[in-house]
Specification:
Structural class: alpha/beta
Distance between the termini: 46 Å
Helix content: 25-40%
Order of helices and strands: HEEHEHEHHEEHEEHEEHEEHEHEHHE
Strand content: 25-35%
Bound molecules: zinc ion
Radius of gyration: 25 Å
Largest sheet: 6 strands, mixed
Length: 365
């Protein structure tokens, strides 16, 4: 298939608009119209992974971490980043990254950590603002159900665990078409009054073109009247970190053993035990230190993340246990997650998981 088929599918699940400002997710090397037969999945895109792609005849590498983060000014093989990009281009291998946009969705990196740790009732720890919009439209009463159904189908009306939410009020619409019009009701040149329903519904801004297309197709009028509003509400489905609960509270040592085992962590660096049983657990794959305040505010007993520095551990202040399980360890199951997402959608397309362990950190025990 074409590379763009795979990337548009991935971006329908993890829209590029959901990545953080500093990130560089998306197609880094390659042409969207390039033919691909097989994809290689890895957490990092290292030279060894590009060599593996060449050896196993993969035309695209889907990695979690983008190989290029900043502007590259020279391509003379001095750094591994330059060498990876150069080798990929020479061998016609596309490089695609699905990074913080995959961290920030309900079914992404953090959801997989929650699943691995057997957490229940999981939700986003720090939901993002300004990602939702509201659509208001005015529909003749007889057509309201059909228009509403088309809007829901296009992705409107989802709030938390509720779907198909809308507000509907009856009123009178007026219009007068000029001689060039062919109105659905009424006559050109005559003021018409029509009993209409005002439908209000919410939608993610990334779905806007799909929602408007559905509206125009389902609405009977020649000129469809609608209003679009920006909302500052949180989007509970998008944001950083997750928090969930253990079915049964564990003592601290038992829980950390469970984490070490399930997350295959070589070592866990943690702050002092607080002496409380562990029930609520906050997680963030990779460097999640910026979420500590939210984890404490959400009542988490422990915060599982990575990349903690010495001085940052002091911020636990006996309110929570900070547990650093390692960056690679926290995100390693992302490879499996991507594999499953792609396999489920494209059953006949070949996907491979890398056999290279790209973790640059080793433990001397
Ligand atoms: Zn990471």
């Amino acid at each position: 298939m074409k590379l763009s088929q795979l990337t548009s599918f991935l971006e329908s699940i993890a829209p590029l608009a959901y990545q953080e400002d500093y990130d560089n997710a998306g197609l880094i090397v390659g042409r969207p119209d390039q033919e691909i037969q097989q994809a290689l999945i890895s957490l990092d895109c290292t030279e060894a992974v590009v060599d593996e792609a060449i050896a196993t005849n993969c035309q695209v590498i889907i990695s979690h971490h983008p190989i290029v983060f900043r502007g590259l000014k020279k391509f003379n093989s001095k750094t591994y980043v330059e060498r990876v990009v150069e080798k990929a281009i020479r061998n016609n291998i596309a490089l695609y990254a699905i990074h913080t946009n995959l961290d920030n969705i309900m079914t992404g990196v953090n959801a997989r950590i929650c699943e691995t740790l057997c957490l229940k009732n999981c939700h986003i720890l720090a939901p993002k603002h300004n990602l939702l919009k509201k659509l208001v439209t005015y529909v003749p009463i007889a057509n309201a159900d059909a228009v509403r159904a088309a809007l829901f189908e296009a992705g409107t009306g989802n709030i938390g665990n509720y779907s198909e939410t809308s507000f509907n009020a009856e009123g009178i619409g007026t219009f007068k078409g000029n001689e060039k019009t062919n109105p659905y009701v009424g006559e050109p040149g005559k003021l018409h009054r029509e009993n209409e329903i005002r439908i209000e519904t919410i939608y993610p801004a990334v779905a806007e073109s799909k929602v408007l297309t559905a509206l125009i197709l389902a609405h009977p009028y020649e000129e469809v009247a609608y209003d679009l509003y920006n909302l500052t509400n949180q989007n509970q489905q998008v944001g950083s970190g997750m928090i969930g609960e253990l079915e049964v509270a564990n003592d601290e040592e038992t829980f950390l053993r469970h984490v070490k085992d399930k997350m295959q962590a070589g070592v866990i660096r943690h702050t002092a035990f607080t002496g409380k049983p562990i029930k609520r657990v906050a997680v963030c794959g990779g460097a999640g230190g910026f979420l500590l305040k939210q984890a404490i505010a959400a009542g988490a007993d422990i915060f599982i993340t990575a990349d903690y520095k010495y001085h940052e551990f002091f911020d636990a202040e006996g309110k929570i246990i900070i547990a650093d399980i390692g960056h690679f360890e926290s995100e390693q199951f992302t490879q499996q997650l991507l594999y499953e997402i792609i396999q489920k959608k494209f059953a006949n397309f070949a996907v491979r998981l890398t056999e290279v362990n790209t973790n640059p950190v080793k433990y001397f025990i």
